[in-house]
Design goal:
With 172 residues, the protein is mainly α. The chain is built from five helices and no strands. Bound molecules: fe (ii) ion (FE2).
Length: 172
């Protein structure tokens, strides 16, 4: 492999990493807001509320961990991640996700729709962390891979918990 090819590949990988980290930050932020909003709209009640709050707390910790990874990767002399670009993508993704929720819920949303939207959001998070995990393999950075894979496991668990909630919401 020539030097120029190596450089191009690396640049492309860094771009992919920046984009995916930004999208993930946006999704984590939107997910936390969604829980607050659905609770204030009284669409998530009683026992489901505690479970949603618990998932929200973990989303907050994921956001912190990814934010920390972004800041460390920006200081890495081989990667020099552009934090501003990450933040731009995060804002854009958060707005898109918020719009999606409004569209999905429509005029008169019920509890089922609210929980199902949370399931969709968790499914989106799982997808993005799976892809981020693949992107991470292009870098020789053990901490990044470990962080991403540990969050991915929790996101897979979030999706399962959301599905359980969705079923509970319709069982009498
Ligand atoms: Fe999640």
């Amino acid at each position: 492999m020539s030097n120029s090819k190596t450089t191009t590949t690396t640049k492309e990988n860094i771009k992919n990493l920046e984009k995916k980290l930004g999208e993930i930050l946006g999704l984590e932020r939107a997910a936390q807001k969604a829980v607050d909003e659905l609770i204030s709209m009284k669409l998530i009640k009683s026992d489901l509320k505690d479970e949603a709050k618990d998932i929200q707390k973990e989303a907050n910790s994921h956001e912190d961990k990814i934010q920390e990874a972004v800041s460390e990767l920006s200081e890495d002399k081989d990667i020099k991640l552009d934090t501003q670009k990450v933040e731009e993508t995060a804002k854009e993704t958060e707005q898109k996700a918020t719009k999606m929720m409004k569209t999905y819920l429509g005029e008169e949303p019920d509890t089922s729709e609210a929980i199902e939207f949370l399931c969709l959001a968790e499914g989106g998070e799982v997808t993005h962390y799976e892809v981020l995990s693949s992107i991470s393999k292009n870098f020789d950075n053990k901490k990044l891979s470990t962080t991403v894979n540990s969050i991915l496991k929790e996101e897979q668990d979030h999706l399962k918990r959301c599905l359980t909630m969705a079923k509970e919401a319709v069982s009498s």
